[in-house]
Amino acid sequence: MIKNKKTLAISSLMLSALFFGSTFVVVKDLLNDFSPLNIVFMRYGLAAILFLFTGGIPKKASWKPGVLMGFFLWIGYVTQTQGLVTTSTINSGVVTGFYIVLTPIFSKLINQTEITKKSYLFSLTGFLGIFLIASNSSEQLFGNLFTLICATGYALHIVMVERYIKNQNISQLMFIQSLVGAILCLPFVTFSEFNFKFEFILPILFLGFIVNFAAFYLQLFGQKMINASTAALLLSLEAIFALIIGISYAGEVLSTLNWAGVLLVLLSIYLVVKE
Fold it and tell me: Cα separation of 39 and 23, whole Å?
């Protein structure tokens, strides 16, 4: 039974990574008509409604963890979406995946988990890879720097989930997380942009329902049985899915130097988890 639960948790995290990896192309297209903060606001708002409906009014014990998770995830979302303005979906997906290297470090600092000295060397390898990926142009570099901040936010979010998820109701926790994200977006929202056309409805519903609702529910469900470092490894498949979708759907192309950077980032991810 325990083995079956672990398999289910791993499968949930991998499916979550697939959903996350598919968002880059969708968001990139929406940025032609919406500002980054407006997109994030819509994603959070739709998810908050669904989580409130499925989980009900949150208990008092859920508010502190939910607020912390919501804050770090909001940082990740905003910087990732802003980064996509000037970087490709492939670059964004791979650089975002660097949270796999950062997560064990933050987990050690915050949750007192163990981490080897080699992991710090692997982190430097990942940073070198990011530099090579960002070598296309100064605009790509600017976008990738935003996405690096995003990876930090995501890593801290995973660590917060590890810290608080064990005895929490997932839907209630996710409602608070989504509500916090939507509230933080409000001062920056441009309401005049909300001129919806039919072509925008499905992408926005996809981001709100499939990703912000379903993918995050799957992530938290999986993290109930999987530690932060292993969860980050499985979620880092997001970068692979983003690569595949970016190449096949968006027709994006990487230079040899960029591919070298991708390999270094993926190598750093592999070495951290193997260690």
Answer: 12
DSSP string, 212-262: IIIIHHHHHHHHTTS-HHHHHHHHTHHHHHHHHHHHHTS-----HHHHHHH
Let me know the angle formed at the C-alpha of 109 by 67 and 274, rounded to the nearest 5 degrees. Answer: 110
HSE-up (13 A, CA, CB side) for residue 76: 25
Integer Cα distance of 153 and 147 in angstroms? 10
All residues at 6 or more sequence positions from 165 whose CB lies less than 8 Å from its CB, including other chains: 65, 173, 220, 223, 224
> Which amino acid does the sequence have at 110?
I
- pTM attached to this predicted model: 0.82
DSSP state of 31: T
As a 3-state breakdown, the chain gives helix, strand, coil percent values, each rounded to 5, of 85, 0, 15
Could you tell me the sign of the dihedral formed by the alpha carbons of 123, 126, 132, 137, in that order?
Answer: negative
Per the document, the length of the chain is 275
Range of the domain at 26: 2-274
Taking the C-alpha atoms of residue 137 and residue 148, their distance in angstroms, rounded to an integer, is: 16
Residues 182-239: pLDDT tens digits? 999 999 888 887 777 778 889 999 999 999 999 999 999 999 888 887 788 778 777 7
Q: 267 near 119, Cβ under 8 Å?
A: no
Strand, coil or helix: 59: coil
Alpha carbon distances (Å) from 168 to 5, 155, 171, 173: 18, 20, 9, 7
Residue with tokens 């819509």: 42
